[in-house]
Amino acid sequence: MKAVVLEAKKLRVRNKPRPVPSAEEALIQVHLAGICNTDLELVRGYMDFEGILGHEFVGIVLESQDNKWAGKRVVGEINLVCGRCVLCLSGESRHCPHRSVLGISGKDGVFAPFVTLPVENLHILPDSIEDREAVFIEPLAAALRILEQVHVREKDRVLILGDGKLGLLIAQVLRTRTDKVFCIGRHPPNLKILRKRGIETLMRLPDKKSRYDLIVEATGQREGLETALNFVKPSGTVVLKSTYAGKACLNFSQVVVDEIRLVGSRCGPFPPAISLLEKKAVEVKEMIDGTFSLEEAEKAFAEAQKPGVLKILLIP
Amino acid sequence: MKAVVLEAKKLRVRNKPRPVPSAEEALIQVHLAGICNTDLELVRGYMDFEGILGHEFVGIVLESQDNKWAGKRVVGEINLVCGRCVLCLSGESRHCPHRSVLGISGKDGVFAPFVTLPVENLHILPDSIEDREAVFIEPLAAALRILEQVHVREKDRVLILGDGKLGLLIAQVLRTRTDKVFCIGRHPPNLKILRKRGIETLMRLPDKKSRYDLIVEATGQREGLETALNFVKPSGTVVLKSTYAGKACLNFSQVVVDEIRLVGSRCGPFPPAISLLEKKAVEVKEMIDGTFSLEEAEKAFAEAQKPGVLKILLIP
What we know:
Chain A has 316 residues and is of the alpha/beta class. Chain A has helices at residues 37-43, 86-89, 131-134, 137-149, 165-175, 188-195, 224-231, 252-257, 270-278, 297-304; strands spanning 2-7, 10-15, 25-34, 51-52, 56-64, 73-76, 79-80, 100-102, 106-107, 114-118, 122-124, 158-161, 181-184, 200-202, 212-217, 232-240, 248-250, 261-264, 288-293, 311-315. In chain A, α10 (297-304) links the parallel β19 (288-293) and β20. In chain A, α4 packs across α5. Chain A binds chain B through residues 46, 87, 92, 95, 97, 149, 222, 225, 233-235, 240-266, and chain B through 46, 87, 92, 95, 97, 149, 222, 225, 233-235, 240-266.
């Protein structure tokens, strides 16, 4: 099969053998896949990954030992875990130290016509969710993770830094908890998607006196964290969503004196993400900025890297 | 009166006028004061403070408009707040943006025979607590702050980085919640104080496979934070206690991927600190490594800066 492969830091489309599912796995035909910022970072060298890229997808189960899955339209969680370690047994399986991660670490991804995943990772989709929406379930779950980690109160003023794919999903998710959600970004078309849904948008940094109870750093840039620190209230919370290669520098004495909480946040729960899409509580289709065939992967990646471009989809 | 003054980054003992209390303040005769790491950092340029240093003290109220205070032996909270802003009214007065801080920012401190403080900052001491213990109440409150910020469970494995003054207090405070408390330091006499109280001590970093649910960074060094990140469990918490001038650099992608919480922690509640000393639940007198007269302040500061030296007291 043709697949989008990262090898020696080069992206290329080449032939790979069709994967063979293990006893616990299903073979899935990928209908549609999404390019995530993490994919772009992987190409830049983050995690030193080599193999088939891609972790956002929707597809149909072709084969599995358990008959209940065959023919089902599914999305899949990206962490493949041992199920036996202390972290797995204590409900923190996404942090299993023995895990591989779909298209990110130790497991070939979904930018290919076929992929295998453990059936325990799969979620069956209701018919009311289109493929073009379902492909957003993985990043929407990552946005929902914030609600598991931080108690967002109705009175809280929330600022999202970044009007990229994840920033727009986070803004909409937090808007379900408080009407004081602000998003700062540089791309008018992206911000417009939020304004239509009652979220205030800013194109430049607010007055230094405007402080926020919660700031979500989703710029993908290392400078975002320092900005967050400038606008969070004393005793407030900064959620970190950006991953990048290398270190960032910060005035940690301010973190101590102002008693700021910095909370790293990664993958989240799929069921509430499916539920939000089912209820049409979150707008995702407007975030699609292009659809490419798998053979056009290089062009698709180039497009996805352009400033302001939101979701680019791949059809295997 | 003679006072220990920081001027143009120089420490000197010189004459200053005796302070005059405002209507809300008491005039206090200082019996005993303690040198804190923050005092050492202030001399190195942290906060650009100029004035009389010192914020850890015990003394006797000489004058106040409200008669109930006269003659009382007291300790005092260090944040002088407005009482009217949003943060004060929401119970976060230690973060009042209009605050001055005793001996740290905008308010002369306690390394002098007399000091003034608002009576609302004062706490009357029970007779069972000696002056040499009472002088530890402010840093002990700072250690107790951690229990207000982090839910420490009986099953948690806790590592304290640093066997300095604050590290030893924090270890003892956390030992009241879990018996799996470890402290890593470089000074055998300091660690011995903890071992006598059932706290495990280490002189070198543990095996990388030993991870902890909670790590408290109290080394005073910017390198401490990176060490903390190497030994915290995924989904674990790092409490930051060190303040220093300048920035520190960190691999924030690890914070995101492992979903670490970093929690800045500063001042804490006095009443439980007084209560712990009253119950003899915390050992502090063994931490006194020298007592100097105010005139010997330079010598006292030199002593306090020596590696491994714990609390140095000043008698005004």
